[in-house]
């Protein structure tokens, strides 16, 4: 269920009421209800894909139970991982591998045709697959015990607020909450969740979808625009994807809070990072944590030679690029982030303090690096991405720039100002919270802006496609 859809506005209040109507003494019935709702909502996309969600759930559930009991758990782990990632590979990467292989064969004079797959990718498959794999590895490394209650585990994998675009939650965080059978309605937690919902909706429909109108127009025909306009569009895309994905994450966390759950924080004002390394401590935190725990550290992390450490960083972000999509543009995007972090380590950039002006410069430099990497992320091909970057730096063009309407800039200013206050003047937030008048005035203003400036009926969230 997409949070910015009419269906959400209609059905979530009903889900909320039915959930809390179930008596506290029937706590497991509440979990069964949430599991039923999660699958019911997932079925609305394409019913057959629910079988793959169920398959991943069953494979990892039973494999985790068997791991402590078999004589060679590593072999079982490998087999289970391969079974778990097979649907992901089959739907998301088969065409990519097929086309890349055919390209290599043609280079050496061999022509061989393999029909590709043109089926749609099951929504959220990257998210629920990685979440299930994380649980399986945690059991194998004995960080947690295997979960015996299938209902609790199935709800952990399929929980509807986070299944489409995360956060990628750890079993150690969510399963205990499920098993605790949340007792009564938590008013304070629900209020905080409602705030997250409101601000997430603002970020999505009033900022991201409003900026998308300008960004899509320029990116679809970048050669018809000046280099400065293309650069402006790249900056606005950086802000669009942040508002889109962080907005979704806030709404997912907000829905979870209203239902009594605490989900993983996913964003922490990433464009105030002073390095690419810090950017990944703030951007898609649940994925970067997953990559650290299950790719980077098992490879050796930083407890090895410098050369090996640099290789570990590169491989980790190579995997990050592949996770995001079956296209060489995503792989290059991931590799750019990995290479930048390697250079930051070589230069000892994280250990330096350059004062206020130096910090500002570092923030701007980091943003520019991330911004140009996003061009590869956004463009369909490497040649298109390079073409746009070259076009941006073509000084023979008129030095003119088209920018979005003033209403676009207004909502963007509100977003940046809010992040700036949260980053550097967080104490003001406590002052606002203490005043009912100020607090409700802000709620009303944000709601009115959503109604006036929001783009409703727009496309789904960007990261749902991953």
Short description:
The chain has 18 helices and no strands. With 466 residues, the protein is mainly α. It has two domains: 169 residues, no CATH class; 266 residues, no CATH class.
How does this structure look, described?
- The chain is an all-alpha fold.
- It folds into 2 domains: 6-174, no CATH class; 188-453, no CATH class.
- The protein has helices spanning 6-21, 27-43, 50-66, 73-107, 125-140, 150-158, 171-179, 187-220, 227-258, 276-282, 285-299, 306-324, 328-347, 355-378, 382-392, 406-424, 427-434, 436-453.
- Helix 3 (50-66) packs parallel to helix 5 (125-140), helix 3 (50-66) crosses helix 6 and helix 8 (187-220) packs antiparallel against helix 9.
- The longest helix is centred in the first third of the chain and has 35 residues, at 73-107.
- The model has no long low-confidence stretch (mean pLDDT 87).
Keywords:
single chain, globular, 18 helices, 2 domains, 466 residues, mainly alpha, 70% helix
Portion of residues within helices: 55-70%
- Biggest pleated-sheet summary: none
Structural class comes to mainly alpha
Q: Supply the number of helical segments.
A: 18
How many beta-strand segments? Answer: 0
Distance from first to last alpha carbon: 16 Å
Name the overall outline. globular
Determine the mean pLDDT. Answer: 87
Radius of gyration computed on alpha carbons? 23 Å
Q: In what range is the share of β-strand residues?
A: under 5%
Number of structural domains: 2
N to C succession of SSEs: HHHHHHHHHHHHHHHHHH
Unreliable spans are: none
